[in-house]
Amino acid sequence: MNVIRLIECMDFMMNAYDVTDVFTVMPLCGCVGSRILCMHGGLSPQLKDFEQLRNIPRPLEPVSPSLEMDLLWADPVVGIQGFEPNLRGASFGFGEDVVIDVCKRLDIDMIARAHQVVQDGYEFFGNRRLVTVFSAPHYCGQFDNAAASMIVDENLVCSFQILRPQAMPGQTRLVKTVRNKTEKLSSEL
């Protein structure tokens, strides 16, 4: 298929079936077993309780600044305390103290998020209270990163499946869990 036909096909599909509208009605976060809060981005200075998350109106077009933008765009930052303006120009960066405070306030064990390339596919932050899981190996052909998925069993024991990039971009292979350090997360801080 030539490039022109491909673009015409994509334009037709986007106009006929505007699939992007689906994203305006999807939840911005979820909670696994009432213990692991999951979101794309990160934490917000506006986040006080689970009720706020349940009451986010949909359809949604997030504006900045807002709780919704932070759930999509905020990032953990090593070495800061509290919240600081985000280098991306949207939302905030937040420190380990914020992670620990939110876990206590919401009575959860962990926060799982995506949104940032991490070398090994996943990376802990905030005394293992936050994990970034990134699922695109060899991101944009510019990074030599692995991808990961987090598996949470019925006892809330977390393990990670790693997908490492091959030497050739676009070719990947499934590798058994590299770090088989599975453990029950404690709610004690």
UniProtKB/TrEMBL annotation:
Superkingdom: Eukaryota
Q: Which GO terms describe its molecular function?
A: protein serine/threonine phosphatase activity
GO cellular component entries:
cytoplasm; nucleus
Biological source species: Wuchereria bancrofti
Full protein name: Serine/threonine protein phosphatase
Identify the residues that the record assigns to the Serine/threonine specific protein phosphatases domain, covering every copy: 1-167
Under the heading InterPro entries, the entry gives:
Calcineurin-like_PHP, Metallo-depent_PP-like, PP1_catalytic_subunit, Ser/Thr-sp_prot-phosphatase
**Coiled-coil residue windows:** none
Q: What Pfam families does this protein's entry cite?
A: Metallophos (PF00149)
